[in-house]
Design brief:
With 171 residues, the protein is an alpha/beta fold. The protein is 39% helix and 30% strand.
Length: 171
Amino acid sequence: MRGRLWCGLICLLLAGAYAQAAEPTVDYAREGKVHSGDPLKDIRQFELVIEDLSKYAQECGITEDSIRGAFMYPASSAKFSLGTLEAPTIYIRVSTIHLPQGICESNVEMDVQAHQKIPLPSSGRDVLATIILWHSGSMTMSYPAIHGQHVKGMIENKTKELITDWNLANK
């Protein structure tokens, strides 16, 4: 009994130390805690980039046009615009595999990225760095006949999340 008590106490202490060491994550949009340092603040234009799809994506009913349409449906009412040249990038990546059991699995990620030269501390030379200003990602599994619709719904929801976070940062 005494050994279990000590083991439980050590586990609690380690968990507490880990929780303090881990970087806290705050969902600013849902908690209404947008601050002046929000990375989406004052961005009025984005470039949309969709990563090239694998052959498995096509087998599972996912196309670049369906991804673009799923993004544009909610984005068409957003107060930011889409353009090119030096705007931060909304980068959509859909990684899909078609499992032998006849199931499709996709990882869907949407990032807002900026690129900037920064000095590399170890050498002092400048390197081009990708800065992630916003991120949302999740996975889905389904049969090929309905998988494209699942992915489309995920992209629409991620776009709505981005629009909400952008609106809160820019009110």
